[in-house]
Amino acid sequence: RNNRKRSLPDTVVDGIEIYSTKINCKVTSRFAHNVVTTRAVNRADTAKEVSFDVELPKTAFITNFTMTIDGVTYPGNVKEKEVAKKQYEKAVSQGKTAGLVKASGRKLEKFTVSVNVAAGSKVTFELTYEELLKRHKGKYEMYIKVQPKQLINHFEIVADIYEPQGIKELNADVSFITNDLMNVLTKSFSGKKGHVSFKPSFDQQRSCPTCSTSLLNGDFIITYDVNREQPGNVQIVNGYFVHFFAPQNLPIVPKNVVFVIDISGSMSGRKLAQTKDALLHILNDVKEDDFLNFILFSSDVTVWKENMVQATPENLKEARNFVENMQTAGLTNINDGLLKGIEMVNRAREMGILLDRSTSIIIMLTDGEANTGESRVDKIQENVKNAIGGKFPLYNLGFGHDVNYNFLEKMALENHGVARRIYEDSDANLQMQGFYDEVANPLLIDVDLQYPQNAISDVTQNNYQHFYDGSEIVVAGKVVDLESNSFVADVKGHGALNDLTFTEEVDMKEMEEALKEQEYIFGDYIERLWAYLTIEQLLEKRKNAEGEEKENLTAQALDLSLKYHFVTPLTSMVVTKPEDNEETQSIADKPGEDATQLNYQPPSNPYYFVDGD
Amino acid sequence: PHFIIEVPEKDDALCFNIDAQPGVVLNLIQDPDTGITVNGEIIGEKKASSEPNKNKSYFGKLGIVALQMDLQVEVTPQRITLWSGGRKSSFTWMDTVTITQNGLSVTINRKKNMVVSIGDGVTFVIVLHQVWKKHPIHQDFLGLYTVDSHRMSTKTHGLLGQFFHPFDFEVFDVRPGSDPKKPDATMIVKNHKLTVTRGSQKDYRKDSGQGTKVFCWFVHDNGSGLIDGVHTDYIVPDLF
């Protein structure tokens, strides 16, 4: 066998030759449509298993998957999760449950499928996924994980970006780039179009001149931003509109930040050291107009200062000293820690300590579950919600694997904040700082995006407590009054110094004409963008809802997921594939935040299923 | 820049030009009581003409200060910047935005004009005049219109501000001028006897492209005799 292997070219590994892998990305108005296609052939004398692995962003929805074996196509079919589940009851009862999609690391999900291919047969895998690229720190980022298992005859990544506002900058960062590969990475942009291409030759893929292993292993990240001559941009196509809003050059609204930090015993050692490191860096970035305080909780609650204090140089020096001397001990009293922080902000506002035009936020960091004081999560949620009363957001950072993340997420969402995982890695301090940077620069508060009442319907979320510098608010909806010539969008918000109303007026006829020319690339993207955003927001609302409201939200999200063929936490994609001369089926589910991380073993049985919701 | 002074009591208007070198800052309005000052910086054409007296000048930068509100507004054909308590907000002429703050209201109407209202009874309109970007000679410039000044004090001065108070003039002896369409006349104003010419200037408040013709008596020689002192008295060192 060894002799035979040596005689085969490098393209063939264990009898399988992968002769092309193409990752084709089309981005239109931040909405990315990605197609990953791999073609392989079984060069062996016997049937072989060919597997197809793709890591895609957690924020993406799979929309299609097909396998074509010897000209016969086996398509994926998106179904309601419960319906799909019934088909697998037998497999589930036998314990043969492994999904096609697994959570993989911080940002990714891994889609894996394998199929037996007869000797001499060809197979083509094609996976399609879509996502709305979000703007962070002034850039949209498209992340592609590159990890082919072997050298590939034709490997390419091609991204075409079309942005009606015009592209301001475009970059591609490749973690495995070498001087040789630099020549095959091209990026260009002009006006509204941008293009990135990466086509290494067969030999350029080798990890060394005589190696048969691939050096293509790592991150391929495309970042770009659009021109912002105007604070907003409204696009209308085929009866759907999208409004992107990101004003610039506004002063930062002063903020009042209370850090509520878990110093229970489980935080000892590296976690506390990383927390201290992050807080010390954050203190360097605090602006003098800001107010702050620290609340530490374990079995008890301690405060740095009795009241919120301004971030004067003297106070910051004292704060650094306080942070450096934090010690861990005891249990986890989340309830009292949070209530103390909320009370502090409320009292400071009532006493007039805080600036009138300022915004308050509470950032809690914890690594565990409430296990002393009030430990019933429902009760803590209720207490926190009542104490905040919708006046300011709560951000929860969940540190490590043991944290009750669902509880933190639900509590953050019902208080207009978000929850983030802080992964217990060497860069946990950078993750915390990164989160702080995102919320450190509010430019507007109480942002309300208004549209002509009778002309639109099914609008996505159109009011936000904050607009942060470097981010972007996206609102989409249906246009019902297609006869009207103009479409006016007003955005009202409170800035650091003044109240602002931005007005965006669009001549619908003119826009239609302008976009007709671009239809080859535009198509129904705004409609799909609207569907994606609507589903995403319905799913988020659903996390907080109970009873009938939850049922309604679920029904709406499910309806749209099925209509637009999105694999969301409510749907599964059933993949039918031939195995041993009989057709069997597999399932692609979207794993939730709580799904098991990685450690995925390719299943040996053709029945795969897991409920990742 | 050309100045037009409407005199409603006479149902007529006076006008004059001020010619100054690029970079010169002129005081247009100054009211020590309300703390409002408006200054304008002169720009010329892209390329200066070699012929004497052929160089036109415009306002390329306007600065508005409202001391009592701790507010400064700087307007150029590219950008609008507001400082309030030393903190800066910046906008472009591509924005359509209304900014309100304790009695101040600034509305930018995309690529057209902006309206600045300071308290009740002081409103300025700044008009953006855009020319073709690749024009070999002309460049974008600004116009300033006072549409409400009734809260400005009687101490208000400046090239425009001095005319916020009622004043009288008389025109007589209308006679043919060097241009048959533009008769000359004699005007008595501020105790000066001047030779003026009937002409017209344009008001761009409503239509920044074409403008509306305003007939006026043109006072020659940088408004000599009509303005208090001479025009160089209004040169100030800085925009703010």
Give the low-confidence spans of chain B.
none
The most extensive interface, with participating residues per chain, is: A-B, 19 and 19 residues
Number of helices of chain B: 1
Q: Could you describe the largest sheet of chain B, including whether it forms a barrel?
A: 7 strands, antiparallel
Written as H for each helix and E for each strand, in order along the chain, the element string of chain B is EEEEEEEEEEEEEEEEEHE
Strand order of the largest sheet of chain B: 8-7-6-5-4-3-18
Rg value of chain B: 18 Å
Chain-averaged pLDDT of chain B: 91
Strand fraction of chain B: over 45%
Number of helices of chain A: 14
C-alpha geometry of chain A:
globular
Mean pLDDT, all residues of chain A: 87
**In total, how many beta strands of chain A?**
33
Structure commentary:
The complex is a heterodimer of chains A (613) and B (240). Helices cover 24% and strands 39% of the residues of chain A. By secondary structure, chain A is α+β, with helices and mostly antiparallel strands. In chain A, strands 1, 2, 3, 5, 6, 9, 12, 14, 15, 32 and 33 form an 11-stranded mixed sheet that branches. In chain A, strands 19, 20, 21, 22, 23, 24 and 25 form a 7-stranded mixed sheet that branches. Chain A has a 4-stranded antiparallel sheet with strand order 10-11-16-13, with no helix packed on it. The radius of gyration of chain A is 26 Å and the shape is globular. Residues 1-7 and 595-613 of chain A have low confidence and may be disordered. Chain B is an all-beta fold and 240 residues long. Helix content of chain B is 2%, strand content 52%. Chain B has a 7-stranded antiparallel sheet with strand order 8-7-6-5-4-3-18, with no helix packed on it. In chain B, strands 1-2-17-16-15-14 form a 6-stranded mixed sheet. The model of chain B has no long low-confidence stretch (mean pLDDT 91). The interface between A and B is medium-sized, with 19 and 19 residues.
